Fold this sequence. Notes:
The structure holds two protein chains of two kinds. By secondary structure, chain A is mainly α. Chain A is about 75% helix and about 0% strand. Chain A has a two-stranded antiparallel ribbon. In chain A, helix 3 packs antiparallel against helix 4, helix 12 packs across helix 13 and helix 12 packs parallel to helix 14. Chain A is globular. Chain B is α/β, with parallel strands linked by helices. Chain B contains 23 helices and 14 strands. In chain B, the strands form four sheets. A six-stranded mixed β-sheet of chain B has the order 10-11-12-7-13-14, with helices on both faces. In chain B, strands 6-5-8-9 form a four-stranded antiparallel β-sheet, with helices on one face. The radius of gyration of chain B is 28 Å and the shape is elongated. In chain B, about 50% of the residues are buried. Chains A and B meet through helix 7, helix 12 and helix 14 of A and helix 5, helix 10 and helix 12 of B.
Amino acid sequence: MDGTILLFLLQDGITNGAIYALLGIALVLVFAVTRVIFIPQGEFVAFGALTYALLESGRLPGTVWLLVGFGVAAFVFDLVALRRSGFTPARLTSAAIVDLVIPGLLAAATWSIAGMGLGNVVHFALTVALITPLGPLLYKIAYRPIADASVLTLLIASVGVHLALVGLGLVFFGAEGLRAPAVSDLMLTVGPLIVTAQSIAVYVVTAIAILALWLFFERTLWGKALRATAVNGLGARLVGIRTAFSGTLAFALAASVGALSGILVAPMTTIYYDTGFLIGLKGFVAAIIGGLASHPLTAPAALAVGTVESLAAFFASDMKEIVVFSLILPVLVWRSLTATHVEEED
Amino acid sequence: MSPRRLLTAFVVVLALVPVIPGVPVFWITLLGNIGLAALVAMGLVLLTGVGGMTSFGQAAFCGFGAYASAVLTVSWGWNPWATLPVSLAVSGAAAVVLGLLTVRLSGHFLPLGTIAWGLALYYLFGNLEILGRHDGISGIPPLSIGGYALTDPRTVHWPIWGAVIVAGIATTRLLDSRVGRAIRALRRGQLAAEAFGIDASTTKLIVFVYAALLAGLSGWLYAHVQRTVTQTPFGVSAGIEYLFMAVVGGSGQVWGAVVGAGLVTLLKEALQRLVPVLFGTGAQLEGVVFGVVLVALLQVARDGLWPRLAALLPARLRPPPEPAEDLTRRSIDTTRKTPLLVLDGARKQFGGLTAVNNVSFQVGRGEIVALIGPNGAGKSTTFNLITGVTRLTAGRVSFDGIEIGGTSPQAIARRGVARTFQHVKLNPDMTVLENVALGAHLRGRSGVIAAILRLDRRDEARLLAEAAKQIERVGLAEHMMKPAGSLALGQQRVVEIARALAMDPELLLLDEPAAGLRHFEKGALADLLRRLRAEGVSVLLVEHDMGFVMGLTDHIVVLDFGTKIAEGPPEVIKTHPAVLEAYLGGAA
Lengths: 346, 588
C-alpha cells in the first residue's frame, strides 16, 4: 500500500466519520434530554436517504403515507391523554394541528410537487420537512407514555421501535435499494487526492449543522431549556420548563439530523430500507466513546470510527464490521471504570 | 392446585403430547421450537429479570453451542451425545471471557456492550472458513438412542422438553438458595450486598455463565434437530427476540420464560401465515407487529404476563422457617484492651471539597460510640471510609490491629464489620426473612451446584433459622414473610439492623438507626444495643436524636465541616463550647 491509497482511505473515512459525528451528536442529545438510547436513529437516516432519492428520481416517496399514519396514531394517543387530563377546545385544536394538519399539509405539498423536477435544493428541504415531524410523533407514541421508566426499559422500547420502523421502511419504500445522484459531478484535485463535490458537501453541511446546534444550545432559550432538562429533569420542571416539550424538541432535532445525514449519504452508497441500523450504530460507537454525554468528544471519536472502518475495509473487508464493533468494547470497559460510581437505579 | 402439582401436570401433558394420536406433526415441531427458545429465555430471565443485566447477545451463545457440535460431528465424526459437554464448555468459556468484560460495564453500557459483541460474533460466525462461512454446516447427524435416530419431531420432543423442565427446576432451586439471594440482591441493593461480603462481580459472572450454558444447551439441541447450522439464528435480531420472550413472560419469572417463548413463537408463526393473506406481501411485517407489541407491552404491562397468570393461582404463603441447629458464632475476646477500630488522620477529598478532614478517633471493645454533627459534617462519608465503600485520600483505618483502609467492602465485612445505611437499602421485593438472611451470607458455604442438587438444605435451614432469630430479636417476627418494601420506613431501618446482626458482627455501624422510630421503639432499640454491648459487640452510630445518644453511649465524637471538633463522654460533650457553637451558632 502506498501513500496515495492511505490518503484515499483517510479521506473516505473522514467523509463517513463526519456523518457518524452528526448522528452521534443527535444520539447524545436525545439521551441527555430523555434518557432514551435511540437505536432507531439509523432508520431516520435510511428514510431520509430513500425519500431524497425518490424525490430526485421524480417519484412520490412513501414517507408521505408514513407521516400521515404516524400523525393519526399520535392523535389517538393525544385523545387518550386528553381523556385523562380533560378535554378543552384549545388542547384538542393544538393536538389536531400538530398531529393531523401539519403532516397532512406536508403530505399534500409533497404530492403536488413530486415529479415536477424542482431540483435538489427543493428536494433537500422537502425531505428534511417530511422526516423532522416523525421524531416528535414517534416520541409521543412510543416514549412519552413510559417517560418515567428506567433507562433499560426505554432501551428495550427503542429496540421495539427499531424493529417496527425497519418493517415499516420495507412496506413504504420497498426492498429495492436506491442511490441519489451526487450534488454535482465536480471534482477537485488536491495533490494526489481527488475530492468529490459530494464529500465537500458532507464536510460543509456537517460543519454548519454542528455550528448551528452549538449556537442553538448556547444562544437560544429553547436550547438552554434542553440543556437544563439534560442536567436535571426535575429541576427543569420546577423552574417551569415542560420536560415533555424538551423531549419533543430533542426528537425533532434528532429526526432532522437523521434526515440530513441520510441526504448526505444517499449519493455515496446504495441505501436499502434496513441500511440505517448499521450506520446509526456506528454513530453510537462514537457517542459511547464520548460517554453519551460529550458533544465535543463525540465528533473526533466519530472521525476515528470512520477512519478505522475504512482502513479495516481495505485490509480485511470481511472483518470490517467485526473490527468496528469490537472497537467499542475496550471503550465501554474504560468508560465503566472511569465513570463515577453511581448508585444503582431501577 | 399447588405449584408442585401444577408442574407435575404440566410435565405429564408434555410427555404425552407426542403419543396422543391425531396431534399433527406440525404442532409438535412448533412445540419443539418453543422449548428451544424457552431454554434461552430462561437464562435471560435470570440474567436480565433477576440479575438486572440486559443482554441482546444471548443468541451468540446458542451459536457457540450449535457450531461446536456441528464441527465435531460433521468434520470429526463425533457422536452427537459426546459433543454435549464440549458444546457447553465452549459456550461456558465464551461466557467467561465475554462476561469478565461485560459484567464490569455499568448501567446502560452493559446492554450496549452486548449489542456490540453480539454483532461482532454474528459477522464472525458468517466469515470463518471452519464454520462454513455464510453457507454454514449441513448434514449434522441427529441425536440417537440405542441406534434409533431421533429424526421425527415426535421423538426429539422428549429430549427438548426434558431439558426445559430440568432447566426450569434447576433455575427455581438456584434462586431459592444462598447464591440465589445474592443474585436477587444484584439488581436492587448491590451496595448493601457488598457490605455483607457478597462479591458482586463474581455473582454477576456466575449468572452470566449460567445463562450462557442454557443458551449453549439450546444451541446444541438446535443443531441436532435442524441438522444444519448457519449464522442467521445467532444474530442480534434473534437476541432481541429472546429478550422479547423474557419480557413478555415477565422478566423475573422462571416459568414466565416458557409462556413468553410460547406466545412469541406462536405469534411469529401466525404472522407468517396471516400477513401474506391479508396484505399480499410477506417478510418483515412481522417485525412491525413485534416492535409494536413490545412497545405496547412496556406501556401497558411492564411486568409481563406471568405475574397476571400467577395471580389466578392461590397465593402461596410460605411458613416461617423451622428452628435449626445454631450457626457457629464468632468468638469475641472481651478481655483484650487494645481498641477495636482506629481512625488515624482519615481524609477524603471529592475534588476541591474536603468531606472528611484528618479525623482520628477510636472505638474500644464492647463500647458504644456515637458520631454526631450537623448535616453535611461528613458522618456518612466517615462510615463509607470505614466500610471500604469510599477510598481514603489519606490516613489510615485499622480494625483489630490490621490496616483495612483501601480494602474492599467484602473483605472488611469478612472481618466482622456490619452496617446499616442512612437511606434504607433492602430489596423491596424479597421477604424480610430473605433480606435478613443476606446478612448471614458469609456464615454459609453452599454454592451453585449444591443449590441445584438441593444438597444445601441443612446449610440453608441454619441460615434461615438464624435470620428468623434476629428478626424476632428486633421485634418484627409477625412481618417476617412479608416483602420488605411493604413495611414502614422505621421498620425497614430495624430490618437493616437485624440483617447486620445476622452477620454476627464484632463491630456494628448504624447510620441513624433511630430515625423514624416511635418513642417506645427507640427504647427497645437502646435496650438491644446495651445487650449487644454486654456480649462484647462494639457499636459506632451516627444519630441526630440527642436524647437517644446521650443516654446510651460511652463516648461521643463530634464532627463539623469534616473536622473533629470535640470528643469525650456524653456529660463533657453536652457542655462543650465548640459543640454548642456548631449546633446553635455563635455564643449560645
